[in-house]
Amino acid sequence: MNLLVKFNILLILVFGAGLGAAAVISRQSLQADARAETVRQAALMMETMLSARNYTTKQIQPLLVKQQEHQKSFLPQTVPAFAATENFLHLQASYPDYAYKEATLNPTNLRDRAVDWETDIINTFRNRPNEVKELVGERETPTGRSLYLARPIKANPPCLECHSTPAEAPPSLVRHYGSNNGFGWQLGEIIGAQIVSVPMAVPFKMADEAFQRLMIGLSAVFAASLVVLDLALLITVVRPLRKISAMADQISLGQMDLPELNVRGKDEIAVLASSFTRMRRSLERALSMLEG
Known about the structure:
Elements: H1 3-71, H2 80-92, E1 99-104, H3 116-127, E2 135-141, E3 144-154, H4 157-163, H5 171-177, E4 190-199, H6 201-252, H7 268-291
Antiparallel strand pairs: 1-4, 2-3, 3-4
């Protein structure tokens, strides 16, 4: 096995180990960035829904309450949770993999009733009300892995106007939804959770594509570097050593009439060539003395 092959094997092992370490670190970093981007999307959606709720409370509700009293019928558009959910349904028509729900344990509108995994989130908020203010997690869905962001919903004084007892609730609300659901809420009680779900497929696909491009680029740089290093090694080390080796082989066979080695520079190869030249001259003088 010649020197160039040994050098290539060593470089491949070193660069291969470095490439493997870079692959592990970069993949973890890209996936972390993808998850962070998904969390940012979920937070933006959550704030958008909160804005819809606030807009309903401050601007829509005062207008519709008067109309509601005049018509003596309940208008669900006055409820911030209803408005936020309806607002999101229009967005969901274009982005079906995204979801928003004000999941409630005992809702007036049964479409808001929490399912099993949502109930677990609500119970986490209820069991640790002073510790957990927000939950971020992942779950499998029929369309792929999804990230959820959840915040607790508390029963505040405005809520109790409609959700304390059927007798105290507006009669129009009881006629609209009935008296079996959505009552018995207590002041400050965590009765549900706002939950935003964002698909993780797109950002993670982008992360995988970025990882592939990075690995292809690093592999190309490694291959180009190996070629350049091989050429440099061939010119500066291998060829001079081959000349010295060939000359030593010829001298060992008794061929002394050989041209001098062209020695340039002050590196180890040049020093070796100079030492070999001096040794050859000393050998020639010794042979001449023996023949004389």
